[in-house]
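Batch job 17 of 40 flagged for manual review because the log was empty.
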Amino acid sequence: MAGLPGASRARSASPGTPSALDGTFLCSPLGGLMGTQAVLGLLVWSLIAATTYHLHAAYGWVMFVSLFCWILTLLFFMTYLLQLQLKFYVIPWPLVLMIYNAVATVLYITAFVTCAAAVQPTSWRQWDYNRRAAASFFACLTMIIYGVSTFFSFRAWKGLGSNAATSQVTDHA
């Protein structure tokens, strides 16, 4: 994750400076992966919500996982976009992001398996079958993206790649 946005500004930013939008974050690998996670997570929970998921307990778990991870991903995305990680420099952001991505990967593995196993091709509502099958597909893609993010977060945490969160934590310590 070398060359992530904010690395040069991390040394000059202090906790008292106002936060600004980091436009280069959106083009970075971290920003791209988080944006992809948000879009795919939105697809998963909206496809499940468009079905009669309340009649099947398995889809309640898929809905919980997808909404929970989607909301937390949006919070992390906004934190990095607004450069709030520079204000809260006592938090080990690379470690927090790695743990979150690892937990989200495991949760999405369970959600994908649950969703795929609960799809019934003999459903009397064809549109429910199509939406649930599509939700299974997008849950699989989301799981893979969280796994890739876990890998890159691990590299950033170990210092194998330089990013804004890593450089600002070591500068203030």
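Reviewer: the log was empty due to a logging misconfiguration, but the result itself is present. Residues 91-119 form one domain. Unflagging and moving on to job 18.
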